[in-house]
Amino acid sequence: xxxxxxxxxxxxxxxxxxxxxxxxxxxxxxxxxxxxxxxxxxxxxxxxxxxxxxxxxxxxxxxxxxxxxxxxxxxxxxxxxxxxxxxxxxxxxxxxxxxxxxxxxxxxxxxxxxxxxxxxxxxxxxxxxxxxxxxxxxxxxxxxxxxxxxxxxxxxxxxxxxxxxxxxxxxxxxxxxxxxxxxxxxxxxxxxxxxxxxxxxxxxxxxxxxxxxxxxxxxxxxxxxxxxxxxxxxxxxxxxxxxxxxxxxxxxxxxxxxxxxxxxxxxxxxxxxxxxxxxxxxxxxxxxxxxxxxxxxxxxxxxxxxxxxxxxxxxxxxxxxxxxxxxxxxxxxxxxxxxx
Length: 340
What we know:
- By secondary structure, the protein is α/β, with parallel strands linked by helices.
- Strands 1, 2, 3, 4, 5, 6, 7, 8, 9, 10 and 11 form an eleven-stranded parallel β-sheet that branches.
- The chain is built from 14 helices and eleven strands.
- It is globular, with a radius of gyration of 20 Å.
- 46% of the residues are buried.
- The protein has helices spanning 15-28, 43-53, 71-84, 98-103, 112-127, 169-178, 193-205, 227-243, 252-259, 263-274, 278-283, 287-293, 299-311, 326-337, and strands spanning 2-6, 32-35, 58-61, 64-65, 89-94, 162-164, 181-182, 214-215, 218-223, 295-297, 316-321.
């Protein structure tokens, strides 16, 4: 199993810290560094910066939001980042949720499976430098002067890998059908079938197996001699996704937590967060959910905890360094994965 790091977005990580951790991970030989976007810092700008500050480590978007860009704009960004990084880029895509898609981008959160499939297809054809003619929005005929165009830039990689971040069952099944990699959240290595089952179904439907995909869950990681301190370091991440990344009636992370058997905890976290009680939401994250969905442990337990993910079928663990000394988490992760 490989290991990478997830440096997310501001304010979780400052720009300086994103660069410092990426450079550290690069020097330690970790597999990859991933940058996300929500409704603040974009992923492309930071990845361009990291491409110039690192030498060998893989660079991934985890995720670039589908409603934020037309597919051809995403292909241009991906090709540019691949050239700037000399062939190290991995394109992670996701739909986000209805609040962000409709409220921030004005894009209806509907027909998501078909929309994702079409988007990935256009991105792949553009990156392959096929001639692409994108349909006009709303079915408009426009001026009638539209012309199919071929990407001017040639990516370094012959096939730039496309990852999808999905956790709803039908969406996960589609990942198995069409993606090169998968970036889930809240994967429990003790009970992975809640997510791996649909992924396997999709892969088999497309004549593939799970071995054809890079299974790369995003996992908050904290290592401390005090187990309680380690657990406390990862709670804010779980509280944020359960409480802020979705509406009360539609939060994919809460729904997944319910399928995992942590529904009561997830709903309490969500209710407190939506009421404006951020501290209460963090406190409501149970030890059981922490232990299921994160790596929060003592140094002596880290090797075995990572091995549990490897046994569950994970091929790249994308770690979110948590705690006051995030660099020490990156170092511990690098030392531990050497032995896997």
